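Onboarding guide, step 5: your first structure request.
Type a short instruction followed by the sequence, for example:

Predict the 3D structure of this protein.
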Amino acid sequence: MATLTRFCAVMATLMAVPVSSERQFPSPVVDENESDYWYNLGKNELEEALAKPILTNVAKNVILFLGDGMGVTAGTAGRILKGQKKGMSGEEGYLVWERFPNVGLMKTYNLDKQVPDSAGTATAYLTGVKANYYTLGVNGKVKLGDCAASLKPENRLDSILQWAQDANKDTGVVTTAQVTHATPAGLYAKSASRKWQCDSKIMEVGGEALKCKDIARQLVEDEPARNMKVIFGGGRQEMGAQVYPDAEETCLRKDGRNLPKEWQNDKAARGKTHAYVTTTRELRSVNIDDTDYLMGLFGDIHVPYEVDRNVTLDGTPHLREMVEVAIKRLRRNDNGFFLLVEGGRIDHGLHYGQPRRALEELLAMEEAVEAAMKMVNMEETLMVITADHSHVMTINGYPARGNNILGKVEFNEDVTDGMPYTTLMFTNGHGYNYTWNGEEVMRLNLTGIDTSGKNFEALAGVPTHEGSETHGGEDVAAYAIGPMSHLFHRVHEQNYVAHVMAYSSCIGPYSECDRPVQAPKNVYTHIKGRQKPVVMSGVSVNVASSVIVMVAGLLPLFRW
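The system replies with structure tokens like these:
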């Protein structure tokens, strides 16, 4: 009761505030200077670990959330920003998936690259086979651009999309990138180059490459993509649909085909109800319960960044809303479903060296995760949150506790030029800004500059072209909850993700299952703000909601 009273007193002084680069944020934990607070916190976590439930039943549903480029550094920064947007210091908080019971680390290298790209990694975690840089849905015998090798049946791979459909499950993809981009294309494309999103890119190469089919056509014409019940993302240009006059030209179709229209014609010919939408208004007008197939293309290229999104009905839906609609459609299947959700623009914000854009995308994906958990039974749903690769962003020392994560370190006696620097910095990127004064190299003086804006480019050590900050090569985390999620338990090769998903759901290479179908009741609950007592092996413990932090007496503080 005393803790609750203190919590209420703290919260009475806090409110949602705009994040400016000069602001300092207080800790919401009144007792953190007391030894007992940390002993009790540690003891509680230990008890939860000792009584951690293990679900061995078959997963009816599998949902994979992929934060493109969401390395551990981005996750930490996103966690802090989440708290600071609510007026708290942020370090003591958690992202939703950071309280999942099982975590593993994934090695991300491609077969031919120490630091990977999103295509080779997508092939790994969706097909179970590691591949080469920039290739999709083909094994290591296919090098970048080798069309002939990619057409050989023995080199082409099935993904979990095919495995799920073979098990009579419904399938879908939701992304904030193009629907033909590397991550979603990893579900269905067999291509020697991720760049072959439209026919003009293959025509630029010419020669033997002309025998290969572009990725957009594979999405509409080929199995398993043409059987996906939900396709949401950007990419109208690559698909040959009508685009706005000022759209950047990235991959124009030369064949004059309108693939969304062909997609609709295919569904009509099969006697299936369908809807093609491009705005929030159109999406909300769809009768989900009476529509077999859904395609939504919400951007000429990518879906707009969350910080730029038109939030009116004539604009673009939030990622959360796209996920909610997708699950409403997919959960109609009694056999269950597989859904891939990509926070694709986390990656793009980082490539441009703009932390605010990237982290707001990360938090938008977290909202989608929370929404998904409320819509499914977590006792029969495996949910995995991971990344394909990291980026070269780092969190620099030594800002004070509660310093704006988008702000600066103003005074560090170890810095020889005496000038401030951004807490978030890149080892390479467009934010490189150095000059020569005739005697020494001088960097940008950030004194008086607001570094928290969406367009601000954080400092970088090595110059790159705009939008070309590179990926990082370190391991990424995979957070898991639900049936067989305990199989994520150490450092794994990235292709292991596909194997766990397939095994949990008894599909694909693991279709012969011998596990109980029914899960123990009340092992997981995702009702926000509630705890349920669970007795396991004679020990009574509190198993907290998957959406909240399992810290006795302080749950409301961290339930951001």
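Each response can be followed by summary notes, for example: Confidence is low (pLDDT under 50) at residues 1-19, 526-560.
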